[in-house]
What does this fold into?
Amino acid sequence: MKDTAVLLIDCPDRKGLVARVAGLLYEYGANILHADQHQDHEQGLFFMRVEWSLNGEKSGSGEMPGFDLAGFRKAFAPLAAELAMHWKLSVSTERPRVALFCSQYLHCMADLLHRWRTGELECEIPVIVSNHRAVENLAAFYGVPFEYIENTAAKRAEAEARQLEVLEAKRIDLVVLARYMQVLSPAFVERYPAAIINVHHSFLPAFTGAKPYHAAHARGVKLIGATSHYVTEVLDDGPIIEQDVARISHRDQVEDLVARGRDLERLVLSRAVRWHLSQRILCYSNKTVVFD
Amino acid sequence: MKDTAVLLIDCPDRKGLVARVAGLLYEYGANILHADQHQDHEQGLFFMRVEWSLNGEKSGSGEMPGFDLAGFRKAFAPLAAELAMHWKLSVSTERPRVALFCSQYLHCMADLLHRWRTGELECEIPVIVSNHRAVENLAAFYGVPFEYIENTAAKRAEAEARQLEVLEAKRIDLVVLARYMQVLSPAFVERYPAAIINVHHSFLPAFTGAKPYHAAHARGVKLIGATSHYVTEVLDDGPIIEQDVARISHRDQVEDLVARGRDLERLVLSRAVRWHLSQRILCYSNKTVVFD
Amino acid sequence: MKDTAVLLIDCPDRKGLVARVAGLLYEYGANILHADQHQDHEQGLFFMRVEWSLNGEKSGSGEMPGFDLAGFRKAFAPLAAELAMHWKLSVSTERPRVALFCSQYLHCMADLLHRWRTGELECEIPVIVSNHRAVENLAAFYGVPFEYIENTAAKRAEAEARQLEVLEAKRIDLVVLARYMQVLSPAFVERYPAAIINVHHSFLPAFTGAKPYHAAHARGVKLIGATSHYVTEVLDDGPIIEQDVARISHRDQVEDLVARGRDLERLVLSRAVRWHLSQRILCYSNKTVVFD
Amino acid sequence: MKDTAVLLIDCPDRKGLVARVAGLLYEYGANILHADQHQDHEQGLFFMRVEWSLNGEKSGSGEMPGFDLAGFRKAFAPLAAELAMHWKLSVSTERPRVALFCSQYLHCMADLLHRWRTGELECEIPVIVSNHRAVENLAAFYGVPFEYIENTAAKRAEAEARQLEVLEAKRIDLVVLARYMQVLSPAFVERYPAAIINVHHSFLPAFTGAKPYHAAHARGVKLIGATSHYVTEVLDDGPIIEQDVARISHRDQVEDLVARGRDLERLVLSRAVRWHLSQRILCYSNKTVVFD
It folds into this structure.
């Protein structure tokens, strides 16, 4: 596995952006592995993701020195300032630290943990948080510390205070709500902007709120869906990362929808987490750019 | 092509329904080609579709006489009454008469007409109705009489009166709204219960009303959809017949959504019409049973 | 959960089959929950699945006695003989006994075990068999006895003898090959006709044999697939139960195909097992009828 | 509609390619609308598509002069030579000239012509060629000259000579085989490298050759597919452009597969043609890069 760096940029669109970023990387000898751009012409915005190798290359006389990341960062900062860029530079050696939250349903949790164990999700998982004890054995099996934090609408303030304590102690970068059935307060959400991923068991914006499979059954839809999204202050309204659907028929009762939906939930949530961890997602205007 | 009959039944569920219907058909010597049932256990309802051949079979001494449809109908009526059945008996030789409505966008219309010409839709199409002249050449190419009926919100009453006149004169069984952009009045809808099929360019119940592709783009969904449904009094709320979706990305602008959506609209509308014509759809509780 | 019985039938097609089966069930007072039929007109074959309740119903004066299964079986046997039926009568209280086989890749295994634990797969799993020790911890976590049986092409006879011993000792009804990477001998396959389910990581019949993702990458396909099927003597050629596909692009390398393929493999294998366990599958002419 | 230019490049991968191309475009003042790159690390190849506006921009003192295309071309040529690039520079004002070929089945032809009429396919269609007269009326309706050229295996040489005459007289850039049921000779194919698009009615590489729906039915697959690809000397073996699939069941007979397949064929062929016309496709190693 090579060590790589990823630069994510968004800024007002103008001529020469690709030339200037690519030019600076070339100057520093970067061996670009992937580069992708996007422009929102309506809003005049530019987005870019570029990934390059940090390792030196082998030559006749031995290995070349690796990429000078500190130097590049120093040279890039004034360019970014001049062009009014938001930017984020990540390196693959610093694995993001992820907290997994769940309640009593464990299908997404079991799926994420298995993917993590087999190397599909490149991150640390220093803690699992739940308001149920159902996940305790699973956490133990995967060797992840488990924090039981009681939570109800009435106790939310207290529970969130304890949760935030844990997240800070564990230096968490990303919170994943793997069918966590409690609403987060705006204050909590504000602490982790574009860093809390939730899975909602419907094809948003259809069937927001509670019991979406019941609502889908009542409406008689022919496809059910699931959606992974960043959490914002407004319930089920944050930037959508991924969606998928499955065909159903008149034969399917609510419990069949629930069962099929579990497969969709696993897929859309695990994809969202993987894309976030590989620095593929940019948010703007309550939407996402997902570089593939 | 064999001549066939289709019997569609819905009634309160009780023991022995399949046995009694199948028994009577057996008594009359029916050669059953397809039979399908469905039960809604929650609501205690039973649904059945059975299709059989009307032609006599070849034996050593020549062809047997065909199925005695009149006799069967007479024998079935009291059974149906006893069991509180709604039922409909159709024969393939009596092709349903379909009116196609459209406005300025012709992709669904061109698609339906081509499918009809090649035998995929087994019906008569005695008339195309539009509030635009755009469809006139296409109608002429396929040899279908065209009725231009001006329509706007202001003139709706007058326009609908004329439309109903045409539909009656042509003895229409099914009205297909192939991207017809005018709202129908409750009075009009009432005249054709479960006999007006519309295509809506979103994944209902998301994005009802006007400009669904704009709404989908604004919300940042990752899949767009289209829905065919029976028209009821409430806009975009009737029983859903078919839905399909296509994946989009941040690169897709509204006009890309519109273009991709056209393919979805063609597919879900043509499937709905085909299933309706082959007597595969039953409506209840604002939903559909679609026998496959 | 109600106790139910399922009757699966295949036989030469003739008039009155539905009437006679439904009639006999009616006579015995069966409360039919689902009934489905299929006819292969080309081959003149008839297939039927019917499911009914075994519990008595509540009436004014208490609960009625349950369905007389022994009596029905006795009455049905001569009818079945007369009509040259193959048939199978299963009851939900007798849960099938399933052996899971795997090698070093555990994604399907972990998925099946989690589904089993949460009640999605209604069966017993008395044993996990593997030629690797990788699965041992997972088996222990789910409390399933693990049998390590060394296997290679050279040792196949010996290994299979031991495997068959285990399967018999555990009274196994169904063998599931959850990415088991050894070929089974014809003799082994013959012992479990239509009772060994395999998952192949391609869209069969494309890319049979080893390394299908490499082959798919080399051919430049735009969709990859996975297939679950019953195992027959001919490699990757048995009756297909389920298939699914995922879209890929030129950006995807072989390892991306492998990663996406894992999701497809989990889905098609778990569906196949679930359908088999709920008695939904009939095999004929190297194909399957899957009643939904 | 803006006038745009598209530059397609493939070359050996090396550092600085993006920087140098983007740098030159910046120097000439290009307003880049879309840019996309791809690297095949295994084969050490680099691919790029970049699209920019040719129109001048409005400023305070009137419109700026447009992009200096001739100057850019002159400056780019030596750079391309130095970097061993294959490249193609296209402008949207020079619409490609497309010949459509078909035999007796017209669903793809009708679909392509309707899409062309409504502006979805940006090209000229100076001729329709067929070995059947079935398409004649349709060609007339859309105002496209029709050439009837008799063809059979026996007469192929003569037929192809006549076809090539027509293609040259009409200055054809792209040949689209819209269910054209005759095999092309290697000599014919050689004249239009990566410029003949065919649709095959299966999920390649499964079911090459004649009657793929029959083969799919016989094998009992659960999904059918269609594939659009560039034609090469080897039948059904050229670089795949697009594929799609549809779910089928045991209920579907060959004629149902044929009917559903028509929808797939229309979709995959029209997408391939649209992508080719918008200069999104590069071929290498018998595969395609399709920039989205």
Observations:
- Chain B touches chain D through 16 residues (CB under 8 Å).
- The longest helix of chain B spans residues 254-277.
- Chain B is about 30% helix and 30% strand.
- The mean pLDDT of chain B is 95.
